[in-house]
Predict the 3D structure of the following.
Amino acid sequence: MRQEIPPHWLHPRDIAQARAAQAEMAARIVPRDALPEPPWRIGGADVSNTRFDPRRRVHAALVTLDAAQDVVAQASESRVADFPYVPGYLGFREVPALVAAWTRLHPKPDLLLVDGQGLAHPRGLGLACHLGLVLDVPTIGVAKSLLVGTAEPGPAVGDAAPILWKGARIGTALRTRRGARPLYVSVGHRVSLETAAVLVRAACDGRRLPVPIRAAHDAANAARRAGEAADA
DNA sequence: GCGACAG
DNA sequence: ATCTTGTCGC
């Protein structure tokens, strides 16, 4: 339902304009539950990069799972990234390709688990927030490491600890697998932190990463291999 | 000024 | 993110 997406929200000319765009977007993030009625169809989003690629291509993938955690749809988009990888500005590199893939995903999920930070970001606008706002879809940030803040959850599966930064809580660190580093969950858009943590836990099946994220990761890698094969 | 730094 | 097999441990 999003009508007009300012061009610089997707294609800023430089870091200064990207920073300004993040401030504009951060002010529009809804950190509360604004979801359709459950049960929800959960989706996953991830992007794979071609190593040492002079063309700087990115391969974005989205998947939709049903209540049984089975993949019922997937879509991908391979293209040349028009923005470099800069910590804190990941969205400008990955969101454009993800948006393209989204238009071809059928059926679409009610909510997306995104491989990256949400509000646990230096300016409150991680990849999950960026994507959720542009698509106007509920999103949750699921990161494998911290960009800012600290958190130390207990060793048992299910143990959680707040991610603290500058005296405020910006997310939840979750132990999703024994002996493995925790996962860092934070609000993306239109979901509360409480709901985000509960859903991520429920989406795990014993491995460190939740099923939707793994499925998206696999799909992104498949798209990359296909693209690299079509090359040579 | 120095170090850190999602994917 | 990406390059990669076997191997150690529960």
Summary: Strands of chain A lie at 42-49, 57-65, 71-80, 111-115, 139-143, 160-165, 168-174, 183-189.
